[in-house]
Input
Amino acid sequence: MSLDPFDWIDEEARRRADAGLVRTLRPRPAAPVLLDLASNDYLGLTRHPDITAAAAGAAREWGAGATGSRLVTGSTALHAELENELAEFCGFEAALVLSSGYAANLAAVTALTGRGSLIVSDAGNHASIVDGCRLSHASTAVVPHADPDAVRKALRSHEGRALAVTDSVFSVDGDAAPLPRLAEVCRTEGAALLVDDAHGLGVLGEGGRGALAAAGLAGGGGIVTTLTLSKSLGSQGGAVLGPARVIEHLVNTARTFIFDTGLAPAAVGAALASLRLLRREPERAGRARAVAAALYERLTAAGLTAVRPDAAVVSVRAPSADAAVRWAADCRTAGIAVGCFRPPSVPDGVSRLRLTARADLTEEQIATAVSVVRRTAPVS
Ligand SMILES: Cc1ncc(COP(=O)(O)O)c(C=O)c1O
Output
């Protein structure tokens, strides 16, 4: 018997390598050398001079760190401004800013449920929702993807407190949840509805007000939404939006809010500046959707299999995990950065290239990206 307590790690690493599933960190240069279709910078704001100036200004004024948890020394007037403006922009009564979208999902799922309650969770939900379910002590029913009838059936099997939870736009395929039908099911069954709008904010709804605004559901009494500030808003951090009594409950009970250092002022300042820029330039949201549609039309016209995008994520199928990794590498060599999704990040085991339709891509860049993805596609 080996006395090395980490032998099993080598064993697992070997299995990962055999399955073509090794992940590696690749630090990017400060100045982009590749055409970026891999990041989540949907509106092209992360390097916008107004946004970086706001981040630097906030750090100078408030300090590099928040200095403590929000309930001790980590709340500034800037946090309050961001919360008020986020709630107002997306059409909710109140908002609470946390240190990431991940923490926001853990906070919302755990604080709104607990022992004896039921969570009904879409099979395609983001890992942070899955982890929230695990931490909640509630029972969780995982229902088939985008299936409101299955949600209703699961809710009817339970007496007492219940929460249905879904991504608004699913990270892997870029398809949208059937929000109006889900909201109707939750309303008639007396369940709360939590929608993770990480990929909807800044892209869907009038001027990028998000998926709930687009569906006419923003501000509904039984509806709560979570956001990340790290995608369309080009910053870092997360938020929960909903009725004021829900937000107050989170302040008092959500462990990832209470026991976590507040979001750094630079990130708050950048997110606030992006939100204000989006108000001045609402056309950025529609442009991201138009770029996604153009990528989809041209890639499928070239014979590739893609999912029609509902927001700014374009997902193109690859024949295997190995092929997806090689395809992404070939795109890099040709000057284009694309995402590569493979197990265990994909619930159905199908590997994909994931292209981000940035609002600031030019016609020429779209044409180049399509031509490279086509040219490097594996022959199946
Ligand atoms: C659907 C979804 N929810 C939540 C998150 C987590 O957000 P953050 O990166 O801010 O922690 C992400 C981001 O990766 C996401 O795609």
